[in-house]
Design a protein that fits this description.
Blueprint: H1 9-37, H2 43-69, H3 75-81, H4 93-109, H5 115-127, H6 131-140, H7 142-145, H8 153-181, H9 186-201, E1 205-206, E2 212-213, E3 216-221, E4 227-232, E5 240-245, H10 256-266, E6 278-284, H11 298-312, E7 321-327, H12 329-339, E8 346-350, E9 373-376, H13 382-386, E10 400-401, H14 419-429, H15 443-446, H16 452-463, H17 469-484, H18 490-503, H19 512-524, H20 528-535
Parallel strand pairs: 5-6, 5-7, 7-8, 8-9, 9-10
Antiparallel strand pairs: 1-2, 3-4, 4-6
Helix pairs in contact: 1-2, 3-8, 5-11, 6-8, 8-9, 11-12, 16-17, 16-19, 17-18, 19-20
Length: about 550
């Protein structure tokens, strides 16, 4: 068996230098030969010079690729996947060092600038580089370039593909080690899901009409819960672009659900092809909250500048229209980003818990004059009913509420063959008329007991520290909803509430009388019959 060959980058670079040095000597001989015997007779020397120059370049190119590959992944494949130059060997070691230094200098100088100015500075920097220099930065600094708003999209695609390959290899090793030492650990399931997602990222996206196209990421960061931004469609040629901003509990391990919604949004229902001249972007670019901290605004405030910067870095066809499609907690983040001046040509809020206490009408969003703002609230969407962060935009002045068809609950705004999706595609493409909501504005007409949700939220917020509201909401929610549905023994439910509070170490915030008062006020919002039923029962004493 032939022994495995190990390619050494240093050896390749030494050989390239030797050829370059010898070529310089050969050029002197060639010039002398031309004088002595004429150019025609010296032709064989010219051919040798070309060979030496081309070979030296190729050896340098291979050395650069080997060095990048030593860090993990397939740099050559990442570049070629998106049509970028693989001739990175033409960029010398000194040039690579200079490029990295210059890039970091541009980033640092514009760190405090507005997102639009920062992105423009990055565009100008990359605009002056050669194709080989852009490729070199993509594989030398993928963790910087992959998330760099304003950098060319294809360069970011290549950088992020390389990051995905490296992260996948790392987490596969972690998974194998954990299975060997602690196979019953809950981390095994989480790692399995993350590995599955990253494996999918490296496979082509299959469009509605069966074509396979590379997956394109403008952001990939596996740290923590993970952050991802993926482009569906050809962004460079798109005249219509939608940016989808999701809400709570969206993470790398369950990202496939968001990707399915994006694929559904971009698919033409008639041809099954991608909508023409259209791109859809999933922006999971912030640390989304879980249920417990979803009542806090901190993660929305932290994520809003990131959305502003991301939007500033996007480029599509000249005159392209950008739509913002925000869902759940993502509507609160989007509201804060819009108030900071993030430009969008149309905005849709879906299943919103509120846009912030300061937003009383569309005017408070500080949008450009004439920007259309829409909202959807499906029947049974308890997140909207909660009004945890202010008035539902579906009821704000200046917002056009749209029909949702047979959507129900909090997560069915993108289901196929439905009015809600048709409305979203109409707004995205600007083609046709959307369907407005024509039903009753009363919450109880949508879902019995809906008006009780904001009462419960406000009672909890007024009685406990803000950081505990989410935990308490989780304890109360199931009991209240069961009571409203008429499917619960309220005395039993009250006992279960006490047990849940004690288990979560939250019982110290309440007395038996507090439980009675909160539950009574909540039920009162849904009718006298339930209140009478509740008030006739006796509450158990705390254990």
């Amino acid at each position: 068996m032939e022994p495995e060959r190990v390619v050494d980058a240093d050896d390749l670079e030494r050989l390239a230098k030797l050829l370059t040095d010898k070529r310089q000597l050969a050029e002197q001989y060639y010039a002398r030969a031309c004088r002595l015997v004429g150019q025609a007779q010296a032709t064989p020397l010219a051919a040798m010079l070309r060979w030496a120059g081309e070979t030296a370049t190729e050896l340098g190119n291979r050395a650069a690729i080997v060095r990048a590959a030593e860090k993990g992944g397939d740099p050559f494949g990442a570049l070629s996947e998106f049509g970028l130059s693989t001739a990175i060997g033409t960029v010398s070691g000194q040039d690579r060092t200079r490029l990295i230094k210059d890039l970091k200098s541009v980033i640092n100088r514009n760190e405090a600038a507005r997102p639009e100015q920062r992105a423009e500075a990055i565009r100008k920097f990359f605009g002056k580089l050669t194709a080989a220099e852009r490729s070199s930065l993509a594989i030398e600094q993928p963790d910087v370039v992959g998330r760099l708003d304003g950098a060319p999209a294809t360069v970011r695609y290549a950088a992020n593909r390389l990051l995905i390959e490296r992260a996948l290899a790392h987490e596969q090793k972690d998974l194998a080690a954990l299975k060997a030492t602690d196979p019953k650990s809950p981390q095994v399931t989480l790692l399995e899901k993350r590995v599955a997602r990253m494996t999918e990222f490296l496979q082509p996206r299959v469009t509605g009409d069966g074509r396979s196209v590379p997956r394109q990421f403008l952001l990939f960061d596996p740290a923590g819960d993970g952050r991802v931004a993926e482009v569906f469609g050809d962004l460079a040629k798109a005249e219509h672009v939608a940016v989808m901003v999701p809400g709570i509990t969206n993470r790398l391990d369950n990202y496939q659900d968001l990707a399915i919604d994006a694929q559904t949004l971009i698919t033409d229902p008639d041809t099954k092809k991608d909508l023409p001249k259209t791109a859809v972007i999933t922006w999971l670019g912030y640390d989304t909250p879980e249920l417990g901290d979803s009542v806090l605004q901190a993660k929305a405030e932290a994520g809003a500048p990131a959305l502003h910067s991301f939007r500033a870095g996007l480029e599509a066809a000249k005159g392209a229209k950008f739509a913002l499609f925000a869902h759940s907690y993502g509507t609160l983040l989007s509201s804060k980003a819009l108030q900071q001046g993030t430009p969008f040509d149309s905005v849709v809020f879906m299943g919103s818990p509120g846009l912030g206490a300061n937003v009383k009408s569309v005017a408070d969003l500080k949008l450009a004059p004439g920007t259309p703002v829409f909202a959807m609230r499906a029947p049974g969407d308890w997140v909207s009913y909660s009004e945890a962060h202010g008035k539902d935009p579906a009821e704000l002045p200046g917002v056009r509420r749209l029909a949702t068809g047979h959507s129900s609950g909090h997560s069915q705004y993108y289901i196929p063959n439905n009015t809600a999706l048709q409305n979203l595609q109409t707004i995205l493409t600007g083609d046709g008329c959307y369907q407005s909501f024509l039903g009753s504005p009363e919450l109880d007409d949508e879902q019995f007991g809906a008006s009780a949700a904001p009462v419960l939220v406000k009672e909890l917020q007024s009685r406990v520290p803000q950081w505990k509201v989410g935990e308490l909401g989780a304890v109360f929610e199931s009991a209240i909803k069961s009571a409203l549905d008429g499917n619960a023994d309220l005395k039993t439910k009250a006992a279960q509430i006490w047990q849940a509070l004690q288990k979560a170490n939250l019982d110290g915030y309440f007395t038996k009388e507090d439980i009675a008062a909160i539950t009574a006020k909540t039920l009162a919002a849904s009718g006298d019959l339930i209140v009478k039923r509740y008030m006739t029962m006796s509450l158990p004493a705390p254990q």
